[in-house]
Design goal:
Blueprint: H1 3-18, E1 21-26, E2 35-43, E3 46-52, E4 58-59, E5 64-69, E6 72-77, E7 85-93, E8 96-105, H2 109-153, H3 161-164
Antiparallel strand pairs: 1-6, 2-3, 2-7, 4-5, 5-6, 7-8
Amino acid sequence: MHPLMVILLLAAGVCEAVYWQKLACPYEARHESLLRVWCRQSSTDCCTGLTFTRTESSVDRGRLKVSQSPHSFTVAVLQPSQGDGVYWCGVLSNNTIIKLAEGFFHSSSAAYIWSLTRWILLPLLPMVTILTNIHARTITKRMFKKAEESDDDDDDGIPGRALVNPQYENTASFCELE
């Protein structure tokens, strides 16, 4: 196996164990005492999830870590319990969720890495195709140039000699002029 492939596989394994996806959720001072909400979007205006208090730092059996700062909280997710999708953070006021922020969360770091890698590869593929085409044309020109130079080197200074060469034989070469 190629050493670069081994390094990539090892890096993916290391990332899998330590990658926390985060979402910062700023709120107004009047929302400070309300329950916090973490949910997965189920339609444009709805989501399903869980609530927690401002004092909790670990939620959903340790899958969510919550850190509090003045006028915001940050949710860190190792692996979303409801799979890939758009997740909201918010506060609960009178049985209504006030959405503070949203973000797309991946169920594995491999999916996250691929989502970034494809945007890197997308512009690279046409560039590689163009550069390969330019390189192939350059090589072809060099080959033709070398072939022409070798034909010029075969010339021994006798005029009309090229017509006698079997490579260039045609019907005109069989005629004798007097």
